[in-house]
TrEMBL record:
Subcellular location, record wording: Cytoplasm
Binding site for pyridoxal 5'-phosphate: 76-77, 102, 156, 175, 198, 240-241
Protein name as it appears in the record: Phosphoserine aminotransferase
Pathway annotation: Amino-acid biosynthesis; L-serine biosynthesis; L-serine from 3-phospho-D-glycerate: step 2/3; Cofactor biosynthesis; pyridoxine 5'-phosphate biosynthesis; pyridoxine 5'-phosphate from D-erythrose 4-phosphate: step 3/5
Cofactor entry: pyridoxal 5'-phosphate
Entry keyword set: Amino-acid biosynthesis, Aminotransferase, Cytoplasm, Pyridoxal phosphate, Pyridoxine biosynthesis, Serine biosynthesis, Transferase
Gene Ontology biological-process entries: L-serine biosynthetic process; pyridoxine biosynthetic process
GO MF entry, a single one: pyridoxal phosphate binding
Signal sequence coordinates: none
Major subcellular site: cytoplasm
UniProt similarity note: Belongs to the class-V pyridoxal-phosphate-dependent aminotransferase family. SerC subfamily.
UniProt-annotated binding residues for L-glutamate: 42
EC code: 2.6.1.52
Amino acid sequence: MSATYNFCAGPAMLPHAVMEKAQQELLDWNGQGVSVMETSHRSKEFIALTEQAESDLRELMNIPSNYHVLFMHGGGRGQFSAVVNNFLGEDGKALYLKGGQWSNAAVDEAIKLVGEDKIDSIEIVQKDNGLNKVVLPEFEGDKEQYRYLHYCPNETVNGIEIFDEIDCPWPVIADMSSTIMSREIDVSRFGVIYAGAQKNIGPSGLSIVIVRDELLALPSLKQSSIMDYRVAVKNGSMYNTPPTFAWYLAAEVFAWLKSLGGLKQVAIANEKKAQLLYQCIDSLAFYRNGVAVENRSNMNVTFQLADDALNDKFLAEAKAQGLIALKGHRVVGGMRASIYNAMPYEGVEKLVQFMEAFAKENA
Ligand code: PMP
């Protein structure tokens, strides 16, 4: 069978080498005669795995020592409420940047929990010659005005990425679900980074939270213990039984990223893949991407065909060639190729060849 390239936005393709190793270890992990899923999270073998995972993640992302790394439940959305409950006390307010589907959803959740008067928001995407472009305002003001500023650097649905870092007087909280570890970032510029795992880390359900120490002194709302960062820190992310298999797979993905040479190399590869695909879209009148060049996502490439009536044909013929899960999110329509870290260059090459042939036959 020829290779299948999975362009799903999440749960996304995982590195082939990691999946093969997991397959080999499924019935016998670490010479124990049982799988990691059947191993106590308190066992010395599993604790060693978690220590290695944290140390690899710290090395990959160059995480300063005044940051905690937490492995939590509840994916990306779980963190929409967790950040509110962890950082907004009785009188705190927060500022949210709205740049697409996911940052908008985070606003809705925050308002649901603390009410509209505690959550200010700014729309940051504007139309520029028909293209979606991010325009960040000047952030000035009183340090005490907001407990935090929340934004989403990569909008998975809309294919919009914000490469500039945010300069503001408040701690920045970033939903990095679909961009984490795709390139190097300066962690010290963030108060909290969180990410659902199912794109660049591992299986869905797990989320990773990187939180600056001093923020845990802020007053928080009464909340469930399993989403409380302070409880997670105190218990080494094991207040309750953690998603052990997801943690194991994440650890394997971190080791794999290190074997590639770390995030600097990974970013070069990602840039190359994205360029190849955008070049194809730009060079053929048959396809259109609606995002300003400086905000085009390197992870989620959205595009429309010249005629929407051809969408089903495109998807069916792509699938027949092993190019799967290219359908765009229902909100934006068209196509979306998610090309996270695990997508090899050959996968994008094959997609581009298919797109060229399809355009020729159907123009
Ligand atoms: N944030 C972003 C940027 C996402 O892409 C997603 C999922 N696609 C989420 C949050 C929600 O993640 P989950 O489904 O794990 O709750």
